[in-house]
Amino acid sequence: MKFTVLICLLVLPNIACAQMIDETFDELQTQRWHKDGTWANDGIFRCTWSPANIWTWGGELFIQINERENTIYSGQMRTQKMYGYGDYHTWLKPINKSGVISAFFTYTGPPHGNPHDEIDIEFLGKDIRILDLTFYVNGKGTDPNWLIDPKDSKGIIESIMDRAKGQLKLSFDPTAQYHHYAFKWRKDHIAWYVDDVLIAKAQQGEKCPKGEPITIPSTPGYIMLNAWPAEAPEWVGPWDQTSGLPVDMRVKQIKYIPVAPEAPDASTSKNH
């Protein structure tokens, strides 16, 4: 089932025309989604992207990490269009393997003629219950200034792993069943949610964990999904390509709801 609604550009000044997305992956809509072609990323990425590593089956999207002829392949997918302020939702199961990142995020950058702006939800393979929440403005990474006290999380969060890095530990195994992960992006804040519970927030002008004032991203970006082995053992754990492959990240649904930049959300009614 796919549902699209047009929102007029007067309501959303940072994009020309916003479309609501409600994607359930009965099939991959190529007019909406783009699979990255076969190319190798640089930096800490230990894989080559391949469109063959992304497919739909039985109402699920699969992104697989596998090995073919001594090369590690995985998949990266993005929307065909860029999207701005709004509510971003996914229901997914990350990959439970050391050294792997499973991610749902927005991104734009110099390859698209824009500054590097990004908002992330990432699962860390060294302990699949760890969520890493971050965002970028003009290439500079920043973390939320507020993380929920686990005792106030309705049983969603077990503990705060690293406040300075925006890392929390879920109280459940996210690979066992689908859970709802979301972030709500406004002109003056970003709020992250798990199963409709507010777990983190970045507020314009507040001090981030490093002590610097927070600036919220403003550039529209692609909605993206990927899974990849990282050369960063201290962050995601050691990577071993000799065993445990192939592995799949599964996605049941993605939803995007465009909103006005100053529109309220549940986080604005709380004293954070």
- The amount of beta strand, in percent, is over 45%
Count of extended strands: 23
Number of helices: 1
What would the principal axes of the Cα set say about the shape?
Answer: globular
Question: Which series of helices and strands comes N to C?
Answer: EEEEEEEEEEEEEEEEEEEEEEHE
The major pleated sheet works out as:
12 strands, mixed
Number of domains: 1
What share of residues is helical?
under 10%
Q: What's the CATH architecture?
A: Sandwich
As for the CATH topology, it is: Jelly Rolls
* Radius of gyration over all CA atoms, rounded: 18 Å
Q: Class, according to the CATH hierarchy? A: Mainly Beta
Round the mean pLDDT to the nearest integer and report it.
92
How many angstroms does the end-to-end distance come to? Answer: 37 Å
Uncertain spans: 1-16
Structural class computed from helices and strand pairing: mainly beta
In quaternary terms, these chains amount to: single chain
Task: Describe, in plain words, how this protein is organized in 3D.
This protein has a single domain (6-262), classed as Jelly Rolls, CATH 2.60.120.200. 1% of the residues lie in helices and 45% in strands. It has 272 residues and is an all-beta fold. The N and C termini lie far apart (37 Å). The strands form three sheets. Strands 3, 5, 6, 7, 8, 9, 11, 16, 19, 20, 21 and 23 form a twelve-stranded mixed sheet that branches.
